[in-house]
Amino acid sequence: MTSRPKHSYDYDVVVVGARCAGAATAMLLARQGLRVLVLDRHDYGADTLSTHALMRGGVIQLSRWGILSAVAAAGTPPITATTFHYGREEVVIAIKPGGGVDALYAPRRTVLDRLLVDAAREAGVEVRYGWTVVDLLRSDDGRVAGVVARSTTGATEEIRAGLVVGADGLRSTIARLTGAEIHRQGAHATGAVYGYFEGLERDRYRWYYGDAVAASMIPTNDGAACVIIQVPSKRFARETRLNVHAGFHRAVAEVSPHLAATMAGARRVGPLRAFAGVPGFMRQSFGPGWALVGDAAYFKDPLTAHGITDAFRDADLLARAVTSAAPDAMRNYQVERNRLSAELFEATDAIAAFDWDLETIRPLHRQLNEAMKREVATIVSFDAPEQTIAA
After folding, report:
1. Could you give the CA distance from residue 185 to residue 300 in angstroms, rounded to a whole number?
2. How far is CA 339 from CA 106, 282, 322, in A?
3. 3-class SS at 186?
4. What pLDDT, on a 0 to 100 scale, did the predictor assign at position 94?
């Protein structure tokens, strides 16, 4: 990981961000015996914007890490089928056993992020909430050698580390401070509005596609389903943003009158939340003394609901690179990340353009499916973890 002697640092690794990518990376590194600190500016178990849906690769990772049983025990419903709605046509796909799992899951982030942090702590990770990184420490040769962090109380601390991992989201402070360049930029973004509703079905994901509008229904915890509408960014700015409630229900009725009628008998829990959208990107994800993972390194439009699965995959790839003795391990991490992500990124950006019709979107979905199969094959090939967390 570093040529410096271990005793010259406070920690082997400081991870900035305790969400899916950060907590998972920290957990995996600690399981390999590294001394790891995680800093997060939010509170333990705080909610965050999310589509929730895990694809097979993400569920396999939770199973491999010994966390899936706890996700299920938290009342997360097993998803046994996916239905694609192309206008009035329905295509039902059963979730068949594969990779050691026989269902998909979509946990609330208030559930999932806590379980990951708990697993990281059990592995020996120190986690501090209410801390924001404001600068980086550097050695004489310019290598990143730690962080300067500030707590909510105003206290400032210099923390030296052999590696600083930025897992702090698409507006990553670590990416900004290291000058990490964007190597690939998406051209499109969608605006989204979502809310939680009780009284909807609980056994499947539903994906709806219509004329310049898409929607999804994703069962999650507490007897609720997350219903999401997504529209082109120009439409979002022109009408949806001005009246989120009206824009949400208008889009639902456009894409599926049946879903709109079903939701009329459901009860919304909590407010509707909106996301104006950001074009996807792939960043340079490593440098002397630093690395990026999760949305900090690679982000794509949430329209295809693959972000958490990407985060778990890349946390594993990064942890393996950090603990590898190979001289090009970190470069190989980025190369492998790009290899597994390229088609997912391309197809997602094409779908986010909303220039398809109900026939031309299907090849894009097949492209996504083939890319996910390759991703699953890679994850299945990972060695089994050396320890697991009891449910």
Report:
1. 9
2. 26, 12, 19
3. coil
4. 97
Cβ-Cβ contacts under 8 Å for 148 (sequence gap 6 or more): 133, 134, 135, 136, 137, 156, 157, 158, 159
Which residues, at least 6 apart from 128, have a Cβ–Cβ distance to it below 8 Å?
Answer: 37, 38, 39, 40, 151
75 is written with which tokens? 């009342």
Q: Please tell me the distance from the alpha carbon of residue 53 to that of residue 301, in angstroms, as a whole number.
A: 14
Residue pair 329/286 in contact by the 8 Å Cβ criterion:
no
The tens digit of pLDDT for each residue in 170-183 reads 999 999 999 999 99
Using the 8-state DSSP alphabet, how is residue 10 labeled? S
Q: What is the pTM of this model?
A: 0.94
**DSSP state, residue 331:** H
Which residue's structure tokens are 């529209």? Answer: 231
Domain-wise residue ranges, the chain: 6-77+104-186+279-355, 190-275
Give me the torsion for CA of 21, 55, 305, 367, rounded to 10°.
Answer: 120
Write the DSSP symbol of residue 85. E
Task: Classify domain 190-275 at the CATH class level.
Answer: alpha beta
For 3-38, how does the pLDDT look when each residue is reduced to its tens digit (9 = 90+)?
334 447 999 999 999 999 999 999 999 999 999 999
What single-letter amino acid sits at 185? Answer: Q
Question: How distant is the alpha carbon of residue 267 from its chain centre?
Answer: 27
Yes or no: is domain 6-77+104-186+279-355 CATH 3.50.50.60?
A: yes
pLDDT over 70 for what percent of the chain?
Answer: 96
In this prediction, the residues of the chain whose per-residue pLDDT falls under 50 are 1-7, 384-391
DSSP-assigned letter for residue 200: S
Asked if 22 and 165 touch (Cβ cutoff 8 Å), the reply is yes
